[in-house]
């Protein structure tokens, strides 16, 4: 879904084709490699968006000794659907890492709705973590089991604290109009 939001947001700015987007993603930081986005994935999602009627081919660029390039533009339906796809990204995200594309395109949605979604996500995350931390396992453990338990509790506590901190920071930045 984030690839589709990325494509639609790029088409909000202007027409493009899959190979051009792939080039843009690899310079100056190889975002394509970091996100595991291949050219074939881009073509797949361009095709999926086209079948949904959210984008359409508008021209074909022909170059000698090169494959034809099919250029796409966003449709009215695509402009209408982009905010819904962004909201879905926020709803389905587990942490800030899953929200990068949505946050980068927050200008296409109502920030108050995003704040509401993130506050709900934060409340649910904290409640879930509280239930886990209050679980009382009284089964007998040997020293290695206790060491493993301490290691895992430390890891997951740090991870949880990190997630909570950055969700709170994202909410704060959005509320202040910084994103």
Automatic annotation (TrEMBL):
<dbReference type="InterPro" id="IPR036390">
    <property type="entry name" value="WH_DNA-bd_sf"/>
</dbReference>
<feature type="domain" description="Transcription regulator PadR N-terminal">
    <location>
        <begin position="7"/>
        <end position="82"/>
    </location>
</feature>
<protein>
    <submittedName>
        <fullName>Helix-turn-helix transcriptional regulator</fullName>
    </submittedName>
</protein>
<dbReference type="InterPro" id="IPR036388">
    <property type="entry name" value="WH-like_DNA-bd_sf"/>
</dbReference>
<dbReference type="InterPro" id="IPR005149">
    <property type="entry name" value="Tscrpt_reg_PadR_N"/>
</dbReference>
<dbReference type="Pfam" id="PF03551">
    <property type="entry name" value="PadR"/>
</dbReference>
């Amino acid at each position: 879904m984030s690839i589709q939001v990325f494509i639609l947001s790029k088409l909000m700015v202007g027409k493009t084709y899959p190979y051009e987007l792939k080039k843009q993603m690899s310079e100056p930081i190889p975002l394509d490699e970091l996100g595991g986005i291949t050219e074939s994935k881009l073509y797949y999602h361009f095709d999926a968006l086209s079948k949904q009627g959210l984008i359409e081919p508008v021209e074909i660029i022909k170059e000698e000794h090169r494959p034809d390039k099919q250029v796409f533009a966003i449709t009215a339906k695509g402009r209408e659907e982009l905010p819904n796809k962004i909201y879905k990204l926020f709803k389905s995200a587990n942490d800030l890492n899953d929200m990068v594309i949505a946050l980068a395109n927050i200008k296409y949605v109502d920030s108050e709705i995003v704040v509401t979604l993130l506050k709900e996500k934060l409340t649910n995350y904290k409640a879930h973590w509280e239930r886990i931390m209050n679980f009382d396992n009284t089964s007998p453990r040997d020293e290695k089991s206790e060491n493993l338990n301490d290691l895992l509790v430390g890891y997951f506590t740090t991870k949880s604290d990190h997630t909570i901190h950055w969700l709170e920071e994202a909410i704060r930045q959005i509320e202040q109009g910084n994103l």
